[in-house]
Amino acid sequence: MPKIGIRPTIDGRERGVRESLEEQTMNLAKSAARFLEENLCHANGLPVECVIADTTIGGVAEAAMAEEKFQKEGVGVSLTVTPCWCYGTETIDTDPLRPKAIWGFNGTERPGAVYLAAALAAHNQKGLPAFGIYGKDVQDAGDTSIPEDVQEKLLKFAKAALATATIKGKSYLSMGNVAMGIAGSIADEEVFQNYLGMRNEYVDMSEFIRRIEEGIYVQEEFERALKWVKENCQEGQDNNPQEEQQSRKEKDQQWKFVIKMAMIARDLMIGNPKLAELGYGEESHGHNAIAAGFQGQRQWTDHFPNGDFMEAILNSSFDWNGIREPFILATENDSLNAIPMLFGHLLTNTAQIFADVRTYWSPAAVERVTGKKLSGMAENGIIHLINSGSATLDGTGQQSKDEKAVMKPFWEITDNEVDKCLQATSWCPASLGYFRGGGFSSQFLTKGGMPVTMSRMNSVKGLGPVLQIAEGYTVDIPADIHDILNQRTDPTWPTTWFVPKLTGKNAFKDVYSVMNNWGANHGAISYGHIGDLLITLASILRIPVNMHNIEEERIFRPDAWNLFGTKEQEGADYRACQNFGPLYK
Ligand SMILES: C[C@H](O)[C@@H](O)[C@@H](O)C(=O)CO
Ligand SMILES: [Mn+2]
């Protein structure tokens, strides 16, 4: 995993000045390292490691020594810290690909903040955007504590920067290609390579058939998985017309098939050393995929069982092997929704809901069809998030903290919570009108009251990718209203009722405007209000944000963004992103 490199910079003037600052400067680095290590964790559960340069950095030779150490140690993110004046261009981190921040200690004995300003100016002049962290309140010289406002910025920067470094060099695995003309399923080489530093890998869906027919999966695991599915995955109601319903025997066959699909998709993504033991060396490697998509519709689903079980279970934090890190797997191979799912996962360490942003139900329309009024959080209208396939089962809202529904990092989830998520989910025989080959769709209703953030990447010819973000809440609506609304769509699919936080302005004027401004058919829903983290990450990658409802004081972007205008931040973001261009271009 990428590490965070800490660079203590210092005034290089020996015979008094430097010596007097050595201890304080190194202590600041140590306290930043300790703070980050204590408060951050990678999405796979591993602790975040910091590497401190061997010496303080007073000039370019010591900057080079720090760089050498960072290269050796696999440092993907850098944080420069200083309590004093140092020499800007001579001490800064000039690696153009490494996200970077400078914490200039706010003291008056020695001018750390003056260095911060000078060093940021140097970064801007050189086209190497850096984040500036300057505490609001003056601290005393010997104080190594980290004020709360500085802590907040350190974490925001570090989490987004680590996500950037984690994504770099990994693959998006496109299983199949374009589903039903959905442009998001065109896995765009330019977007992945230039903006994310990723490579695209492609496998034809026929690879699933080859592996199923030739037995290229681990038989022992399959048997264990089948037993687990029988015990834990309850089959839901078959809504197909009686005469079309598949027989028990056919359904039993299909369960076996979809379990194999799940195992094979996982092996395709990350490999499986057990396949090498079975003589399948090449297959054992996988595609180094940190995210993937499955086309499914229609060539596959017109003939074979659909991908819903595979997608839902891989996107969840558990399966027959126990509790584990969720995968990122987009339905309909919508790669532009897989990207925000990946962002959400790396920023929160939790599983992600993939959904169609399907229907805006105005209060008037709800009243017309149900005779009932929406109230409480739902009173301004609701958005129906629903899709066959890849909503994580963590999205049931059956995990809890302080008696509130939450979605947790996998290492905090208990066996009892896994049972509850599974209990809250039924697996309905797929709607055969849509899915001629059958399969099983996960069906659940997300618990209300969870703070969530819905985001989506869109791509515009000539402009490139843009990100849209809506913080809001999942809501409970009365069961009788839900039943009527749900029956009007496909009731075999999982439903999340969503209300965005409204600002009364522009895209967040009302719930309708959020729906009306959504850029495509899908959204990625992440637990928590993480719009600020997404904005920080997007700025590192130079992806402009075209719509968000995040309070101004939570927004943290590289210092250079201010130089593109401070009155109207949205336009400044576009100008800055365009000026610097994609991180890996
Ligand atoms: C079954 C249907 O084709 C759905 O998959 C369709 O409505 C979508 O989800 C489109 O994104
Ligand atoms: Mn869809």
Explain this structure.
Helix 8 crosses helix 9. By secondary structure, this protein is α/β, with parallel strands linked by helices. It has two domains: 165 residues, Rossmann fold (3-Layer(aba) Sandwich), CATH 3.40.50; 410 residues, L-fucose Isomerase, Chain A, domain 3 (Alpha-Beta Barrel). It is built from 19 helices and 23 strands. The longest helix is centred in the N-terminal third of the chain and has 23 residues. A six-stranded antiparallel β-barrel has the order 13-14-21-20-19-22. A five-stranded parallel sheet has the order 2-1-3-4-5, with helices on both faces. A four-stranded parallel sheet has the order 7-6-9-12, sandwiched between helices. The model has no long low-confidence stretch (mean pLDDT 97). The protein binds L-Fuculose open form and manganese (II) ion (MN). The site of manganese (II) ion (MN) has 5 residues, from loops.
